[in-house]
Amino acid sequence: QVQLVESGGDLVQPGGSLRLSCAASGFTLDRYAIGWFRQAPGKEREGVSCIGTPIGITYYADSVKGRFTIARDTAKNTVYLQMNSLKPEDTADYYCAATPKILFSRCLLNSPYDYWGQGTQVTVSA
How far apart are CA 14 and CA 89, in angstroms? Predict the structure, then answer.
């Protein structure tokens, strides 16, 4: 059974850091495109960062470039999203997603993904 479980969301002050985790089971992450997405109240879900297939290039939304880093630990079958210099506008529910499709830079789009986690909440506030 394919499953993705996110964790690491929390309340943090502006300028702070968080590391989100996405633990996968039922499949091997290193053969899948993996994306992190977020959805703020009243807004559409947007792509934040992803690891594309087949080469494993990483991509970032312009709003998080230089602040967020995506990384994959194949031994733990887990993908991380390190978030630094957090801003109030980063407040959202964060989701990870996976698909075996070949995506390249399309990995920042919602539509290609087959599997989604349940989300973890990030709140950036003083």
Answer: 10
Class of residue 18 by CB neighbours under 10 A (exposed 0-12, middle 13-18, buried 19+): buried
Residues of the chain with pLDDT under 50: none
| Burial of residue 70, with CB atoms counted within 10 A of its CB: 0-12 exposed, 13-18 middle, 19 or more buried | buried
For residue 102, give every residue at least 6 positions away whose Cβ sits within 8 Å of its Cβ, in sequence order, or none: 33, 53, 54
Q: Work out the widest C-alpha separation in the chain, in whole angstroms.
A: 41
What DSSP string describes 79-95? Answer: EEEEE-S--GGG-EEEE
CA–CA separation, 53 vs 31, rounded Å? 8
93-99-102-108 Cα dihedral, nearest 10 degrees: 0
pLDDT at position 91, please?
Answer: 98
